[in-house]
Each structure stands twice: as C-alpha cells, then as structure tokens.
Amino acid sequence: xxxxxxxxxxxxxxxxxxxxxxxxxxxxxxxxxxxxxxxxxxxxxxxxxxxxxxxxxxxxxxxxxxxxxxxxxxxxxxxxxxxxxxxxxxxxxxxxxxxxxxxxxxxxxxxxxxxxxxxxxxxxxxxxxxxxxxxxxxxxxxxxxxxxxxxxxxxxxxxxxxxxxxxxxxxxxxxxxxxxxxxxxxxxxxxxxxxxxxxxxxxxxxxxxxxxxxxxxxxxxxxxxxxxxxxxxxxxxxxxxxxxxxxxxxxxxxxxxxxxxxxxxxxxxxxxxxxxxxxxxxxxxxxxxxxxxxxxxxxxxxxxx
Length: 305
Hints:
single chain, 5-stranded mixed beta sheet, 43% helix, disordered N terminus
C-alpha cells in the first residue's frame, strides 16, 4: 500500500489529462489546441509522464502519433479515473454551454451530417467553449471507442444491443430511389423490373449491412446488380448525376442532394420495414449534464425534421 501511495504522490493529475488528449487526438499539436496549452508544454508533460511510467507511450505515426501497447493498456483506467474525479469535484447538474468547456466526439454516417448537424452547430457556434468532432471510423470497432471513453455518441441505423450501453431511437428515416434526371430508361417511376435490371450504386458491404437492407431483399427474393460501391454517402450525388446508375438512399439525404445536383427521386418499388436512426452511448454518461445537453440537441434536431 505504501508503494501505491508513493506512486500517486509522484504523479501529477494534469499529466493524465494530457495523456487522454494525446490518445484521443493522435496528434500533439491538436491535443495542445484542445487543452488551450502550448505545444512545448504538452511535450514537456508527455516527457514527465513517460519518465513516471517507464514507457514512451506514443510513437511517431504518419499523421501524428500512435499509442504503444502500454498506452492502450492504460487508457481505459485513466479515463475511468478522470471521470470519477470530475464527478466528485464538479456539480453534476451544472452545465452552461456558454461557459462550460467541453469537447464532444461522435461517430455518424455522413448521410446524417447535412441533415442533423446544422441545427446542432447553430446551438454551439457562438459558444467558444463547446466543440464537436464528427468522426467516420466505421472500419474500426466504434463500440470499443465508446467503451474506452474516446467517443461520446454513435448515431447509426444499427442497434447496439450491449448491456453497458444505452441505445435509443431518435427518429424514423424514409428510404427512396434516386437517379439522374432524364434517365433514358426511367419513365415516371422505377418499377421492380427496372430495379432488378438497372445497375446500382451502393455503400460497401460492411456499411450496407448496418441497415440490413440486403438481408431484407434476400428475404423477399429480390436481387440487384451493384456495379459500384463507395465508403461515403456524399459520393452518390455526383456519380448518379453523371451516369445511368440508380441508388437506394435515405429520403432526407436525397432531397438535400437534389438541391445541388440534377437528381430525380422515386418511391421504392417494394415495401420496406421502417428504418430508424439510433443514438448510442455508454451508461456512465446517463447523468452527465453536458452529455444530456448534447443528446437533447440531437433529439430536438430529429424532431424538427
């Protein structure tokens, strides 16, 4: 026990805050900006922490730094400790977006960004203490990122059925067909025959499976030819407008895109179960006043739509 207390006496809590910021951003300069400190100060703090734990913690990477195995091992405990300390010394019901410094990180499909984020950004744009970072990291385990505290929220059509997470529906999403205006083979509607015969544009399989659309099409014996796949929704408008491909898209996203691109929107040629968007977070954020505020802003934006 004596050695345990001796280790704590030698460790400055601010070093752990710096460690968390560098781990989250993967970049020392960005961590300095987030904490409002100079880069030399952050580098000095990292040097002190390296000396304390006997490990380099971060090594150079193409766009910044990446954690060592020791840092990966530490991050969960460090974040849990910082959250416990913050909860103990702060007023849990006190959160003022005009004065409280907070940086939120969320993952959302880019189809949701032009629909939800303008309303949320308008709520924070005059508050210099609140920042939001939207990430697109579906190729990694977002559930793990929620677990270790490097993410605050996931906005997704996928239900995360995990015991330590909250997963709440925030709205329904209609689904439509989209194609370029004056498509030579479409006369007023996309029939089921056209749906099956025309080449499709779609998300890559690992993203498509989150909506379970392919699973449903198989269940009703409808097949399609996916000629081109992409990793982001904003690839769709330009490609559709300049080819004879067709695509299944979220309705609100298609309507936003059609304001800037010559796209026509059609009903699906089959019935599709209601699609919903879900907001997922870890249980330990349930009573976090800032987190509650963020969830309320997202819910309000969805209800407005």
